[in-house]
Design a protein that fits this description.
Helices cover 44% and strands 24% of the residues. By secondary structure, it is an alpha+beta fold. The protein folds into 2 domains: 219 residues, Jelly Rolls, CATH 2.60.120; 110 residues, Homeodomain-like (Arc Repressor Mutant, subunit A), CATH 1.10.10. Strands 2-3-4-5-12-7-10-13 form an 8-stranded antiparallel β-sheet, with helices on both faces. Strands 1-6-11-8-9 form a 5-stranded mixed β-sheet, covered by helices on one side. α6 crosses α8.
């Protein structure tokens, strides 16, 4: 096992101390930096950005060729870690704990430590990892005028207001595939320069908000429980991606259930659990989103868009578009034309 001691005072310093052990080169522009590495120790990348409101993004997309232990000195840098693993797994423990806790994929995780102690993170050997962390420095975050932590539930309120870092906190949430979609959207950004950074920052805010929302729902027990297994939830996720590949295709619950190997009840329960929509509502939602994207990015007229997304009735499309977005599609299209 290779040990990496982290004594840095920020995210950038953390990555540089990892670089000292695993190698690679760091390049960056506009405040976005990437450690690219292909060595005997690891292959992949670690991306990081820091924002002026007290947050930072740290994204591992990497495979380590030896077991790695990070020993993190929290007396120097002790943010709240909002963690989401899209692929792979890792382990964590606080200083006074004997056993490691497994951090599994697709579960939102929130961790912070006491000041002056140590956090231990363990990365497995030969496991492709995609881990996204939003790290929040609570003092700097709370000094921002719009960051009112009083809207949080009692547990998170105490975490954000623990300015002297006197308490440990950990939360391992239930499965959340909405976060997986948000994390994926980070890699879908094609813009460059200032526009790219602004888009990344906007998604980071959304990731943070979804972490907080998910925790609150779990704590209030208002989030509906599900008896679906992880395998069944992943099957629902795959079928949702299948729908997205061609929104114009005529889908029905029978065929979708057969394709993913679930019965009707479990398929509907999975969509309600992950997307708060029935299968039919989800298909309608993604079609409308596609229609709006086509209006933003193409020269197609309304009739062409209606058929491109799989609808046959222009009047029905106009009705549900206005119900969802508060504007008729023809008026929306006119506004887009005026902007160009």
């Amino acid at each position: 096992m290779t040990t990496i001691n982290i004594t840095a005072q920020d995210t950038a310093g953390t990555v540089r101390q990892i670089q000292e052990v695993i190698g690679g080169t760091i390049s960056g522009r506009w405040g976005e930096y990437v450690l690219n590495v292909s060595s005997q120790m690891a292959k992949g990348s670690i991306r990081f950005l820091t924002f002026e409101w007290g947050g930072s993004l740290l994204e591992y997309n990497i495979t380590f060729f030896n077991e790695i232990m990070l020993v993190m000195d929290t007396s120097e840098f002790n943010p709240i870690h909002f963690t989401y693993i899209s692929n792979g797994y890792c382990y964590h423990r606080f200083e006074k704990e004997d056993a490691n806790r497994k951090l599994e994929a697709l579960r939102p995780i929130i961790i912070t430590s006491k000041d002056g102690g140590y956090n231990y993170g363990y990365f497995p050997k030969d496991e492709k990892l995609h881990i996204t962390l939003v790290q929040v420095s609570r003092i700097k975050f709370l000094k921002k005028r719009l960051n009112d932590a009083s809207v949080l539930n009692q547990n998170l309120y105490r975490v954000f207001h623990d300015e002297h870092h006197e308490h440990v906190f950990s939360y391992f949430g239930s499965y959340n595939l909405k976060l997986a979609q948000l994390v994926k959207s980070l890699s879908d950004i094609k813009q460059s320069g200032m526009m790219r950074i602004l888009l990344i920052e906007g998604i980071v805010y959304q990731i943070l908000a979804l972490h907080l929302e998910h925790h609150s729902k779990d704590m209030q027990k208002s989030k509906r429980n599900t008896n679906l297994t992880k395998r069944e939830l992943l099957a629902v996720r795959r079928i949702s991606k299948y729908i997205l590949k061609d929104v114009s295709k005529d889908q029905n619950v029978d065929n979708l259930a057969l394709k993913c190997g679930l019965n009707h009840t479990k398929l509907q329960e999975g969509f309600k659990h992950l997307f708060s929509r029935t299968v039919t509502e989800y298909i309608r939602h993604v079609r409308l989103e596609e229609a709006r994207d086509l209006m933003d990015t193409t020269d197609l007229n309304i009739t062409q868009i209606v058929y491109a997304i799989g609808f046959s009735s222009r009047s029905y499309f106009s009705k549900i578009f206005k119900r969802k977005y508060g504007i008729r599609p023809s008026d929306y299209l006119k506004k887009q034309v005026m902007r160009t």
